[in-house]
Design a protein that fits this description.
Order of helices and strands: EHEHEHHHEEHEEEEEEEHH
Helix content: 25-40%
CATH superfamily: Metallo-dependent phosphatases
Shape: globular
Number of helices: 8
Number of strands: 12
Strand content: 15-25%
CATH topology: Purple Acid Phosphatase, chain A, domain 2
């Protein structure tokens, strides 16, 4: 089975459409969305519609949880809070109900899908440096063989056993049978690794291999919609920088 895994769309319709076109060409068997369909961008409703249409499973991200009232976001920066408030005002009732019902975690065989760290799903903690893997290593026995996450908007992967963790510094790699893995799949709609292209991943269960894919999209159009909406212009400007 070949699985397309994507995360952190953040209401960027142009980037999402580009990723879905790639996945269509690759003729995949299953699509998993790791959350944050909304937040920051100009088209939350349209992005929810597309994810609901194409993804076989979607898990809850922190921005999804915030916009539908499942978490407190009063501590977010003002611009992010205002974007979430605006998203809540434009989402259809069907899409709002869909977000309200999303699970924090999903599984497929020995694979797990969640938005942030698998250790405390509702806390949405980050994992993007080795130090943050310490507690995952300590909880080795309870972890899935491979856990796919988003949240950091970075392409970061780690292998681990009951003793230690190692960063996997490859854009395509095979997974060892005697190690477990945390794989962060990057961001579709707001990459933060100084590469402006939309990012997603593909996992082959037979070959036990994972590959990152980068896809160019119409950044100018996505940014212009942000500039024209009731949103911070910074959310549009950062698309041109990949930060």
């Amino acid at each position: 089975m070949r699985i397309g895994i994507f995360s952190d769309i953040h209401a960027n319709l142009e980037a999402l459409e580009a990723i879905l076109r790639l996945y269509d060409r690759l003729d995949l068997d299953y699509l998993a969305c790791l959350g944050d369909v909304v937040g920051y961008g100009a088209q939350p409703d349209e992005c929810c519609d597309l994810v609901r249409q194409h993804a076989d499973v979607t898990v809850l991200g922190n921005h999804d949880a915030a916009v539908c009232g499942r978490m407190d976001y009063s501590y977010y920066r003002a611009a992010a809070r205002e974007a979430l408030d605006w998203h809540a005002s434009v989402l259809s009732s069907d899409n709002m109900a869909w977000l309200e019902g999303l699970p924090y975690r999903a599984t497929l065989g020995d694979l797990a899908f969640c938005h942030g760290s698998p250790l405390d799903l509702e806390a949405f903690e980050y994992i993007f440096v080795l130090d943050q893997m310490r507690d995952v290593v300590a909880a080795h026995e309870a972890q899935a063989a491979v856990t796919f996450i988003g949240h950091s908007h970075l392409c970061k992967s780690f292998s681990f056993d009951a003793r230690d963790a190692e960063e996997v510094l490859k854009t395509r790699f095979s997974l060892a049978a005697d190690r477990k893995y945390i794989v962060t799949v990057g961001s579709v709609g707001q990459p933060r690794d100084y590469d402006t292209r939309a990012c997603c991943g593909v996992f082959d269960t037979d070959a036990r291999s994972f590959e990152y894919h980068r896809v160019p999209y119409d950044i100018e159009s996505a940014a212009r919609k942000i500039f024209e909406a009731d949103l911070s212009v910074a959310f549009g400007k950062r698309l041109f920088l990949g930060v």
